[in-house]
Each structure stands twice: as C-alpha cells, then as structure tokens.
Amino acid sequence: MEKLKSMVPDRLKQIVADSNADDLHSTSSSLLHFLKNLSQFHQMIRDLTDLEAALCAKNKDAALELKQKANKCYSHGDYDTALASYSQALRIAPTDAIDMDKSLVATLYLNRASLFLAWYRRGKANAALGNYKDAIHDLDVAKNMELSLGGKKQIESELKIIAGQYEGTSYRRVQHIENGLGNLNEPHQINLLCVAMPDKGRGMASPCDIPQASLVHKEEPYALARGETISYYRTKNGIDDILPNNLKEYIAEVTSCSDSDPYVECFPEHKHECLGVHWPAVLPSEIVLAGRILANLYLKEETIILVSQIRVNAMAVIRMKSTDVHCPPDQFGKFSHIGDALTSSVDQVPVGKAIYIAGSLFNHSCQPNIHAYFLSRTLFIRTTEHVAAGCPLELSYGPQVGQWGCKDRLKFLEDKYSFRCQCIGCSQLNLSDLVLNAFHCVNPNCDGVVLDGCVSNSELNKLRNFPGVPKMQVDELNNAHIDNVDHLVLELSNNSFNIQPGYCLNCGSNCDLEASHKAMRNAWICMERLQDAIVSKEISTTILSDASKGLGVLRSILHRYNRRLQRVIWDMTPEPLKEGFIWPNPTIFRQRMRLFFFKETFIDGFNGAEDNLAQAFCLVGDFQSARDHCKASIKILEMLYGNDHIAIGYELVKLSTIQLSLGDPHAADAINRLGLIFVRLLLRASNEVCVATTSSNVMILKGAYLLGQVDLEGPCIFKPTT
Ligand SMILES: C[S@@+](CC[C@H](N)C(=O)[O-])C[C@H]1O[C@@H](n2cnc3c(N)ncnc32)[C@H](O)[C@@H]1O
C-alpha cells in the first residue's frame, strides 16, 4: 500500500489533501483514473479480494513465512520487497486471543515501522550522494509510513530541499551537455547504491559495470578541522543552543538508534557506529574521560557517541608537497642522470581532518578497488580496477594485502577502528599472505615455503572462520604466477589446509623456527646499525661489511619471496664487500642517491633497510648489479601484486633511473611501461590528479612527476586516517 501511495504524483496528492467532502467524487475519480493504469494497483485489489489472501483469510504459517522473507529482504537492503512482505503478512496474520499471534502482529508492526528508519536513512544517504531522484522516492515512502504529523512535516521540508537540489543538478547537467562539456574524457559520476553488506553494516556498491579509474564519488565535507585547531563556542544556554541545525540533525541521527532497533541487530559488530557501545574501545582514555564529563554537563551519552562516530569516520586530509629541483628535460622527458642532482622528494603534509556524510559509508578492504583523494576540501573517489555491477566499492583504511601480513592488518584495524576485518584479503587465502613473511626451506634443494606460528595460525583462522572459501582460493593460487612458485605445494585434505608451523609446505622438512628468528633478528640489527650510521654520517667499513653479512644470513633463512628480503636484496650489492674496501665520501653518495629517496614514501615498514642498503649500494657504484637486482625485484613484485601494480611502477622508476645513469637504451622500455602503469592509475582531469592506492600516493606522484604529468605543488591527496 505504501509503495502504491508513493507512486501517486505530488500534484494529485496535493489535490486530495486540499479537497473536502464536496470534492470527494472528483478527487476519487482522478485517483482511480491514475491508479487503474498501475499493475501494482490491480495486484493489490486481487490480494484484497482473494479469499485466501484477503483480510479475513488468516493464515499464521503463511504470515510467519512472509515475516521471515521480509526480515531477510530487510537485511539485504531490499526494502521494497520487505515492506510488501510485512504488509502482506499483517493482512493474513491471525489476531485472535492466542498470545503468540498477538506478538506476531505486534512484531510485524514493529518491523514494518523500523523500515521507516531504513527508508529514511537510505533517502538521506542517497541525497548526500547526489542521487536525488532515489532520495525523493525513499523519503516519500518514509513520509507515508511516518505516523506523526510533526514527523511527516519534517520529512516534507527535507523533501522540498532535495527537490530543489535535484532541479539544480538537472539544470546543471543540461547546461553541461549544452556547453559541450559532456565530451570531456572525465567519466561522469555514477549514482552508487547504499546497500546492507553481510558483516560490514551499510556499504557502497556499484549499480553497473564501472571501468578502471572512473570517478565514482565526489563530495564536499560535512565538517572540516584544519590542523590541530578546533573551535568551541559556548553560551550560557549550553551547547545545544549554539549548535548549527545540521549538526544537531547529525547528532540526532547517530544517536537515534536503540537496542530494539532491528537495523542495529543486523550489524552487531559495528554497534559503536550507532550506539557508542564500544566507544571506550575506539577512543583514547583521555577522550573517554572528557566525553564522560561533557556527557554529564550537556548531551549525555550522545557526546561520546558523536565523538566515536567522528573517530571512526574522520578522514585525514593530506597535501603533497615537493621541494624538487627541476632540471632541463632530456630526450626522455623530465628524467635526468643521477649525477645531475635531480630529486623528486615529495612530502605528505597533513592538512586536517574531515567528515563526509556519504564518504563515510565506504567500507574498508585490504584489497581495495577504489581510492579516495582530496582536492582542496573536495573528496574524490575513483576505481582502481574494473568493478562489476553489484560489487562492493571498498577503499583501504590503511593496511593492504602485500604490504602487511594478515595478522598485522587485523590487529591494526581492531586497535584503531575496533572492527574485525571481513574483507576478502582477510577471509581468503592469498599467495601474498603466504609468502610475505615466509622462511626458506632448510633443504638446500627445495625452494619451499615455511611459515612461522603466527602466519600459519592466521591462515588457519581464515579457513576456520570462513569455511568453504579455501578450495577456490587454492585453485587460484595454483594458477597464480605459478612458474615462480610451482614448488609451493598446497595440500588440501578434507577441506582443511595442511599448514604446520616450521614445516616446509613443499617437502615437509622441519626448520628450527626459534633459531631462524634469532638469526633474522641479529641480521636485522646489522641493517639498523647501518641506518644509524648513515643518519649520523659515520659509516665505517665494519658496519657496512656486517650489514653485507647480515644480508647473506637473511638470504639463507628467508624465502626468496619474503618481502623483507626482497626490499633488501635489490639495494644490496650481490658481491660480498671486499675487506679493505674504501667507501666514498658519504656526501657524494647522498647526492647521487637523492634520486632514490623521498621521505615517508615506502610502501611497507622496512624502509629503513631499504634506505640504508640502497645508499650502501650506491657507494659501491655498481649500477650494473643494481640493474640486475632491480629487475629481479620487479619479478618478485609481479608475482606478489600482478603486472600493473603501483609497486611495480615504483621499482620501474628506480630501474629506469639506473638504466639512464648507465646510458642503457632499455631505459625507454622501462619508462614506457612505467608510463602505462601511471597513466592507468593516474588521470588528469580538470587539473586533478588521481592516485591509485592509499599508501602509494607518493610513488604515483613521483612517477607522474618524472613523466612530466603533474605539477607537484598543485594537487592534494586525500587518504583515510591511518
Ligand atoms: C566508515 S564506516 C563504514 C560504513 C558502515 N559500514 C556503516 O554502516 O555506517 C566504518 C565501519 O564499517 C564497518 N566496516 C567497514 N569495513 C569493514 C570490514 N572490512 N570488515 C568489517 N567491518 C567493516 C565497521 O563497523 C567500521 O567501524
């Protein structure tokens, strides 16, 4: 019935609302004239007159079945069907004196009423997303379901505002096309769907196939705090009086749920979103205390809930800044020789934090398919890969597969955001998680993988928590760049993955994990000493040769695809340092290597070793070996990330600069490939820069800068709080 009501045009509704008893005939016939063309109307008449389904034909079992169907539809976000099913169930639910039936009717009414909230919220989310037409439809339904006059009036006024915005955008769209702007390469914005995701609460999904690098969302901030400055205003009447209306609405919205709200029951794991139940978990203790004091003074629990909301939803605004020295372009464009002191240092400058209403509906994935960035204060979100219709659109809140192991990713997200990540990377086996921190098999003739207790536990947990998933994944693993990992035999018996810590997955040899860990730690200390020495500019041959030996140890105990080793190897000379070797003056190698370094830019936590050993390698001046190792490193990364990942682009920047320094004509190939990767990930549209993965912003910018595609002073990058 509500659906049908929502289909009645406003003009007709107004006529009915303004009519009196004298107009009854004419208004009824206008209504009938409109309704009789609707199939839904005829269906409703059939339902009402059908003896089985009509009001008097009660059927408890059928009502229960409909209720279950409605609940299911509700949790999947199919509110249309949920509403129709609840209404149908109410029609046939018995209302006699049996208690259970009474409570059935009450529950049906309650659930149907709770749909109001869902429609209302979806309407608001659609409005924030610019899907004004859908927003109007949703709020119209919510208005029809709202019983109180005040509530109806409030929704009506919201509808008016949205209708105004809708007219504005239609006008702008028309203008856009008339001005010929519709022909710009920039794909037009796609109207996303806000849907209920299993285990993640609400989330965004694509309504259609979306090509890579499409702009899928653009939004102005709801609130922005620049730097550390936050202003508070007080009046003698208290906070409530001076809060702007829209902030009051926001507070009302985030605090309006109660435990009986079925919406909340659907998504228990993110209750802090709605109820603040877990707020002590997401907030630092000082804020909890401050919140408690404020709560006593002003807004009760609402204050803390609001702060929790902000904590979970705020995004950090980062601006990219370059202090580069520009050299005249050579035949390869903006590249230059190492000795020319061309640098491409890029710093991330935090600008502030902001809240985006619709932007905060995007869930996290450790294998994201979208990237959020920021120009001035506007949030932009683009796809980083082709996204099929109906797929969730998810960005990374920080950790990503290939950069951190699964356990660390889960811990970070739990510590920082208080949710257990349910993304595909954390629920399915993937090659990267298996080899990222793997040890080498002790058998010199075997190239198999040995996992330590931590990694094997977290992989086994995936299998335990997400049964049924691994088989498909193992098949996938077997097909994934297997020329490099054909030795990685994954045994699957009775749907359980045969992983034992310390045992080679290939030949089953046992490795003394304790001894390996110890050796790794000692080797790593040598790397860290070298780092300190570089910082203090006091590099001795002992420190360097110790680091070189340390590398040898790491090579012998870590699997060759271990990320830690990979980061080290390419930077380190393959030849052990000869005793008595005299290292050049640190200032000279620093100058030479400036090209390779830019602050805070490495995609994982091992940048210290990379810095140190790359610089050490530069000291040796063996660029041929550097080139070979760089190529080897690219091969490993291809295996870990695929051919087009930005991590490869980053290595290609290094490779091409080394090749250029050697006068190697193959530099052009590396640059071309680099160009393809960056062009794919980086779009220039209306002076903006699109970056592809959260933690690789700087690398993309660096590549783009080297390709002459971007002025680093211009763009700002946005990334979620990390
Ligand atoms: C910024 S909000 C995203 C929108 C949210 N799902 C909602 O319904 O409002 C972040 C919250 O969504 C949920 N979430 C996001 N990504 C998730 C993931 N990968 N696994 C589990 N929960 C997730 C968590 O409750 C998290 O605190």
From TrEMBL:
CDD domains listed in its UniProt record: SET_SMYD
Lineage of the species this protein comes from: Eukaryota, Viridiplantae, Streptophyta, Embryophyta, Tracheophyta
Alphabetized Pfam families for the sequence: SET
SMART domains in the record: TPR
Extent of the TPR repeats: 63-96
Keyword terms of this UniProt record: TPR repeat
Listed name of the protein: SET domain-containing protein
Domain SET intervals: 188-398
Annotated InterPro entries: SET_dom, SET_dom_sf, TPR-like_helical_dom_sf, TPR_rpt
